[in-house]
Amino acid sequence: MRCPVSTSVTELSEIVRRDGGVVIEGLLTQGETSTVHDQLQPHVEKRSPGFREDAGDDEFYGRKTVRIQGLAAKSRQFVDSILLNEILLGIADNILLANCGNYWMSQAETIYIAPGNPAQTLHRDDINWSFAAKQGIDLQMSVLVALGDYDAEVGATRVVPFSHRDGYNSPIDSSLAQPVELQPGDALVYLGSLAHGGGANTSENRIRKALYMGFLLGWLTPEEAVPLAIPLEIAQTLPERARSLLGLSSLRGNTATTGIESFAQLWQLDRDHLDKLDGTFLQ
Ligand SMILES: O=C(O)CCC(=O)C(=O)O
């Protein structure tokens, strides 16, 4: 389902739960979209497509796809307009806080698919946390923001509607997959349990430009080693909420208000809570 950006967070969250995902039209303004794009572009240009690992990574992540991470250090507009986007955080609160004390960012990356890249195998983003996924709870909320062309010919994401209801181990019926076309600034928000995959880029010379970001339950390990990619001098300039989403702060694993669970924290240093240290703990 496609909704204008004026749709309430409550309604958007209900649609995500019901359908497995939603398109938010115009989540970013044209100006925000082009600033994120332009701030990332020099980094994208430095990176060759494909990956260093050989264990299926090229096949799955795309031999002709450019993925760069560490986005919070590369684009402040990414932090302000996507990581701290109130609509995205509102939906994530509704979906994820049922099963954790805090959530954090699992990864954020460009997914720029060049012509000739075949379609990605359909999958559920929960694959990295299969032990937890089998419990049938929501682990992750994913977002794909279009930073440029995002139509079926260039490899718009293919999703299998309602497949989040099937259970983690159920087979994925690729005949049901549909491309989700986006305009620059639109976002596809979906559950980690929804089957989907990048499409094939069959265009002559256009690149499919997406920015992916995932929020994950705080008691699960993120895919990206996020804090390692953020130099201290940049970490110190980020708002506190951004630091906590980026693993530069400690996390509650649960929501207890009494007993030892009420003060236990994950991701500490010398038993200090990182958020008390104002981002200076790395010195
Ligand atoms: O590029 C896309 O449209 C989806 C990418 C994806 O699902 C992934 O790489 O895990």
Topology overview:
Elements: E1 2-4, H1 9-19, E2 21-25, H2 30-46, H3 57-61, E3 65-66, H4 71-74, H5 76-83, H6 86-96, E4 103-113, H7 130-133, E5 140-146, E6 158-159, E7 178-179, E8 187-191, E9 196-197, E10 208-217, H8 232-235, H9 240-245
Helix pairs in contact: 1-6, 2-5
The chain binds 2-oxoglutaric acid.
GO molecular function: oxidoreductase activity
Keywords: Oxidoreductase
Pfam families: PhyH (PF05721)
Task: Please characterize this protein's 3D structure.
- Strands 1-2-8-5-10-4-3 form a 7-stranded mixed sheet. The chain has a 3-stranded antiparallel sheet with strand order 7-6-9, with no helix packed on it.
- The model has no long low-confidence stretch (mean pLDDT 93).
- It has one domain (2-231): Jelly Rolls (Sandwich).
- It has helices at residues 9-19, 30-46, 57-61, 71-74, 76-83, 86-96, 130-133, 232-235, 240-245, and strands at 2-4, 21-25, 65-66, 103-113, 140-146, 158-159, 178-179, 187-191, 196-197, 208-217.
- The protein has 9 helices and 10 strands.
- Helix 1 (9-19) crosses helix 6 and helix 2 packs across helix 5 (76-83).
- Helices cover 25% and strands 17% of the residues.
- It is of the alpha+beta class and 283 residues long.
